[in-house]
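Changelog-adjacent note: as of this version, every example in the card shows the full chain rather than a window. The one below runs 203 residues end to end.
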Amino acid sequence: FSRSWEAAYERELRSFRGGGGAGEVWFGKESVVRLIRWMEKHRIPRDSPVLDIGSGNGVLLVELAKSGYTNLTGIDYSPSAIQLSEQVKEKEGMSNIKFQVEDFLAPSAGLSGFDICIDKGTFDAVSLNPEDAVGKRKQYVRSLCSVLKPGGFFLITSCNWTKEELLSEFGEGFEILEELPTPKFCFGGRIGNTVTALVFQRK
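Full-length structure tokens:
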């Protein structure tokens, strides 16, 4: 399962080195804009420690750095993803982002004290793992509680889970603050969302 992610990021890394772009932005550019707008609207201090869980190619943190945020950490369990994000960071000249290889389901002791944790698709990927998905989801919530300060904010974007399902997954230890607007689709006369974006606060 993790090997397929590693292969995907190796391809993106080769493409980037060959003069291509940084690769795909999960959930599109508007998902990045939506998160930054929320942080600006709620006047999150620019030096608040922010963790991007499953940072992939690092584009979200580069955009946060461009918006003036200065205390940014990205983790991914794919070494190729971290290599790619380091190169994207260098190309953009963003020195205030730290990237590290890290398995969020077994976080290192130093990974703690964050005011904001952001997840765009990582919880989805954990949930799709064919081996003990339920146990891994519970471990994800435990890890989140260990890295996020009490009172801190967790911004999650998901295409696998509805608002109600996420509320039950994160019900213990977190309360929902708001649902962020996401693009809607219409099918057979019914309107729905393909993507759910929620803001939780750690109790």
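Structural remarks: The two ends are 33 Å apart (CA to CA).
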